[in-house]
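Question thread 4412

I'm putting together a teaching handout and wanted feedback from people who do this every day. The idea is simple: show students a protein as raw sequence, then show them the structure tokens that encode its fold, then repeat with a second protein so they can compare. Below is the first pair exactly as I plan to print it.
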Amino acid sequence: MAQVHIGHVSSGNVANAVNNVFSNRSNPLGPLTLQADGTFQIAVLEDLHFGENAWDQWGPQQDINSVKVINEILNNESPGLVVLNGDLITGENGFLENSTVYVDQIVGPLLGRNLSWASTYGNHDYDFNISGNAILEREKRWENSRTKSMVPGPDAGVSNYYLPVYDHGCVNEKTCRPELLLWFFDSRGGFKYQQKDASGNRVGQPNWVDTSVVDWFRETSSSLTKRYGKTIPSLGFVHIPPYASYAFQDVGVDPNKEPGVNDDLPLAPQAQGWCRDGTNNGTCSYGAQDTEFMQAVSHTKGLMALFSGHDHGDTWCYKWDRLLPGMDVTPANNITLCFGQHTGYGGYGNWERGSRQILVSKESLAKFEASTWIRLESGTVVGSVALNSTYGQDLYPKTNSTMTYCPTCNYRRRARDNSD
């Protein structure tokens, strides 16, 4: 397979290079299918934050190092799908004319390996000069993108959709029954595209999964169950974690039962900073607008796990199997809520970069189970756990909090700039 190297070239040259590689190929996107051995693996790239401070020396250097991380991960793992789970771009640093060109740099390593990907958009992907719609339009320049937008409306966000995964050998989706469903939710946040208020300030956008999306999810999930006459095992992806993750962290994360870094204390959930009446004036800590979303994901049969990012210093998983203090949503399906690993050199924090991996097989799907681990930039594997009926009781090795730093970035300059 030809490789596309993009370290020091402009995004326009990246586009030309990748186009040249694929110009004589047929569309690689058939149905997502299990491998011949009955397995399917997903690599989750979380909080890439490309395009941060492009006018300084250290911003572009971060992006080069982020590309290196992606290549290192994919040199060690063989996913059937890559999920870009939010905050692809640091949108507040982008210019209207070129805010989405970083997509080309992000997907270069994927295209070079003929991998397809699917995205959710995060709060930093929405700002005055960038929007989910604009990122999706840029993604669709590449035939390997599986990102969709299935829920219309100005308040729904953009990246709300599902992807079916069929058995090995399926060539016609109309005649195959899915073995696995992948759900993607847009938790929005950030700021509205090209909108300012009367004082000239950017207009904030709600940071939770909208009720229209929740209704679509419930109706579509029910329809698929009826269509296929069975509950299809499923996994979900959303950038900002639900409040249940905050509530569990407050109870206490056990480093041996829920291995992972737990340095973001407290974490930042959906609806943070909003009031229950829908205002966002700095007087409230949490508005509970994600309650319907939590009710839906925790009561949908077959939904095994929900994966989020946003909090760069949290990488653990926990089984939400009981009513948590301060909440009124009692889960019914023992869903596991997982954080990924901060993948990009952009964004806050210097926890070692990496990528959460998810593996299912026909045997594990029959029991509504999955395996997951984190592959670090160094090549080390940490936090390997089985998301099964005894997860939360089984004991695992503790995950150490290791750090990595951009070797070519001027962090002294960065620290001074950030203090202004």
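The second pair follows. I'd like the answer to focus on this one:
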Amino acid sequence: MRVVALETHDIRFPTSLELDGSDAMNPDPDYSAAYVVLRTDDGAKGHGFAFTIGRGNDVQTTAIKALEPYVVGRDCSDLGAVYRDIVGDSQLRWLGPEKGVMHMAISAVMNALWDLRAKLAGKPLWLLLAELSPEEIVDLLDFRYITDALTRQDALDILRAAEPGKRARIERLRADGFPAYTTSPGWLGYDDDKLRRLCKEALDEGFTQIKLKVGADLDDDKRRMRIAREVCGTGFPIAVDANQRWDVATAITWIGALAEFEPWWVEEPTSPDDMLGHAAIAREIAPIPVATGEHVQNRIVFKQLLQAGAISYLQLDAARVGGVNENIAILLLAAKFGVPVCPHAGGVGLCELVQHLAMFDFIAVSGSMDGRVIEYIDHLHEHFVDPVVIENGSYVAPLAPGFSSALRAESLAEFAYPWGPVWNTASESPPIS
């Protein structure tokens, strides 16, 4: 685990051409990865990335590079200590603290270190984490700012309570996989025929829940929800996602207008920083649940959402908060409050990452799949060395060592920005690792 080099790559996919990923706030995203490769003195590699939707990579890759002094030349075996050291840098911390571009950079580096550790152990990350002792897990965490909701002893109690039955849950996961839902039919830029076709395909593929983007035009939302309901049938779970489009009052009114279509949940109805706004919406639209998390900046905001009773589903993101370490703290917070975790995976590589976190949660934290599903989108998996596998609407537990985060060398070369041939803006390309 002695790291001798850190490399960054700006990788962008032109998904805006087909409107894949389009929603009410992000009409033309180019799914992108600010990608990092860590090398050890014995030739091993760890891979991680921060997900952006295009030009943000200009800033994000630079932020990742700024963390080079914290890992290069260091034995990174103690990932709890590395995490706390990086987060605690006072000058970089000033840019947050613990949020925004620098925190996402920390996530990319920490996730690359976890990928490296799992590869050196010869295990997929979900299994590596699940086999740690409760004491080893809590030693990874930073409890500062959350002890009013979750103490070290609380965390130990949750993890110890999940110890019985772990082996049986591992076998169940290997046999049955983890339930998924698909957002692939629901992008806002798709026409009605494509929506209808993709809903039918989702049913045929065994998915038991879908999600539609909403929030740009109420009449359009009603029409699209009607189409989805006609194809999927009464009672079939159809969630909706507003991607932060509304003020509090607008959200309450808009969801009221969609209530006849029985939304399974409403996701990101307002600003991800507005805990009290989410709580007000949750009260007014009940029994329709509220879900959020993909843009929540850290464990502290999640703590407040849970304390305020603002969410019924917690949607952590593998690449926005401080990587695996902070996401474990968030899983434990959710378990403390009895809120199911349904990870966000709408973006390049996020499906590959969050499957490991959800599987670890099932085995070692919550001990349950009840009410839990992982988002799935059918985009860009072919670019990964160890892509996700979906069978009968469920994630198949990955077997390859690591965090499933390594991109194929051919994809790095083709989609490197601005050098890659798909962008065609430079005559020569730099060497690709």
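Top answer:
Good format. For the second protein you could add a caption like this: The mean pLDDT is 95. The domain at 158-406 is CATH 3.20.20.120 (TIM Barrel).
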